[in-house]
Amino acid sequence: MRYVSTRGEAPDLGFADVLLAGLAPDGGLYVPAEWPELPVGSISGLPYPAAAARLMAPFVGDDLDDATLARLCDESYATFRHPAVTPLVQVDHHHWLLELFHGPTLAFKDVALQLVGRLFDHVLGERDRHVTIVGATSGDTGSAAIDGVAGCEHLDIVILYPAGRTSEVQRRQMTTVDSPNVHTVAVDGTFDDCQDLVKAMFADAGFRERLNLSAVNSINWARVMAQVVYYVTASTALAGPVTFCVPTGNFGNVLAGWIARRCGAPIADFVVASNRNDILTRFVAGGDMSTRDVVPTLSPSMDIQVSSNFERLLFEMNGRDGGMTAEQLRRFRSTGRLDVEADQRREWIEGSFRAARVDDDETLEEIARVHAETGMLIDPHTATGVGAARRLGGAHPIVTTATAHPAKFPDAVERATGVRPALPDHLADLFERPERTVSLPNDLAAVQTFVASVSRTPHTP
Ligand SMILES: *Cc1c(COP(=O)(O)O)cnc(C)c1O
Predict the structure, then answer these.
(1) Is residue 59 part of a domain?
(2) Is residue 294 assigned to a domain?
(3) Which of 115, 374, 419, 455 lies at a 20 to 30 A Cα distance from 197?
(4) Is the separation of the CB atoms in 384 and 355 below 8 Å?
(5) Which one-letter DSSP state was computed for residue 450?
């Protein structure tokens, strides 16, 4: 299996190199050179980890042997607290939730990052290499990335977060991990300041090379690949075709669903749910892909305006022409508006994607409604999906991806229902655990000095 860049100017690579590279050197994202046919019919009756290994094998190719891939899947999904790993739960006669939040940090990002951490450690070990992962987080991604790599021998991770601007649960999920390769930094600044510091560290070529800087952000192909699995297991369990409704930020999760369908899963179409940050809804519903300012909502992990993974769909829409995709994105960056031809929309969007925007009031109403009707508590991200699914659900059974555990966003859930969701047992003592973090000014030199001081990547000071 070979991978090509969506911007057409990078050499093609195998799976392990794509995993370690993240972003392609031409600024594009890696996609398989050809979409494989997945063994969709062969997974019935298999436990989730075994199904995952079988479904991902065509994407991994010869870079990992089957036994290693199966072992890494077993280890990754043993960290989940439900025997089905991603259970389907029925909400009404034709609406299901696909619960993706039973992993260690209570958000769907665990499904991918538990595996990606282990893949990194395995490949780096084989190559006798060591990397330093740096990242910025506003909450969910940082804790999932930390949990996915904690204890790994061949990598260190340093996560920057804006001091005082994450929820206490989110901060403690990062700062209470006691592992010699995990480091967190409270930056005196905003999330954007943290992201700028990370970008500046990558832009400093000397620093980047000295410490073998790496990233595990949402554009990494291996994260998308790991998410393809639950679209296949859920749609085949329900003997599809089904509609999936996906609460969306970076478009990574819904793109994984599109790939599952492209590679043979019985999926009819997708409903994209957004909150007030609705660039994707405006695009799908009316062809308007133009950026606006990000507004804070009750579903902060969807407070995004530029959905980085959309580039992979755009590449398909352009007939896999990397030059055309790169040019389109250049124009988007300079004008804030992405222009897509009417016939491209008809071919690629209509019939495949529908979209709805669900604001905070409606999010609270959906949390209350689901609680009143079923007794279940759902988180605000999931609630945007449930609202969109109720509005746009059609002929097929509809499955909404439940992307976070309600206890991760207890304030909104309590406001809607009067019930404060309890943390699961493994986190019940989160507020008693000691925190390990350092506070630094919003200053590149100070952050670089810290990263170099904790990195175990062999380097000269
Ligand atoms: C990251 C996240 C999302 C958005 O997922 P994308 O893949 O970025 O579209 C939705 N809900 C929760 C809880 C998340 O953490």
Answers:
(1) no
(2) yes
(3) 115
(4) no
(5) H
User: Does the CB atom of residue 409 touch ligand 1 within 6 A?
Assistant: no
Domain enclosing residue 323, as ranges? 88-104+221-417
pLDDT above 90 (res 175): yes
Quote the number of domains for the chain: 1
Q: Are 134 and 451 in contact (CB under 8 A)?
A: yes
128: helix, strand or coil: coil
Query: What separation in Å is there between the alpha carbon of 256 and the centre of ligand 1?
Result: 12
The whole-angstrom separation of Cα 447 and Cα 185 is 8
Distance CA 56, CA 69 (A): 9
- Diameter over CA atoms, the chain: 63
Asked about 408 being catalytic, the answer comes back as no
pLDDT of residue 75: 97
| CATH number of the domain to which 292 belongs | 3.40.50.1100
Q: In the sheet that 213-214 helps form, which strands lie side by side, from edge to edge?
A: 213-214, 131-136, 155-162, 182-188, 438-441
CB of 251 shorter than 6 A to ligand 1: yes
Confidence label for 23 from pLDDT (cuts 50, 70 and 90): confident
Name the catalytic one among 109, 171, 223, 354. Answer: 109
Distance CA 425, CA 351 (A): 43
Segment 363-412, tens digit of pLDDT: 999 999 999 999 999 999 999 999 999 999 888 999 999 999 999 999 99
In Å, how far are 97, 222, 378, 449 from 86, measured between CA atoms?
10, 18, 15, 41
DSSP structure string for 320-360: T-HHHHHHHHHHHHHHSEE---HHHHHHHTTTTEEEEE--H
In a domain, 353, yes or no: yes
| 8 Å CB contact between 102 and 109 | no
Question: pLDDT tens digits, residue range 90-99?
Answer: 999 999 999 9
The rounded Å distance from CA 249 to ligand 1 centre is: 6
The per-residue pLDDT of the chain, averaged, comes to 94
**Three-class SS string for 242-302?**
EEEEEECCCCHHHHHHHHHHHCCCCEEEEEEEECCCCHHHHHHHHCCEECCCCCCCCCHHH
Over residues 198-221, the mean pLDDT reads 90
Q: Sign of dihedral through CA atoms 20, 25, 28, 30?
A: negative
Supply the pTM of this predicted model.
Answer: 0.95
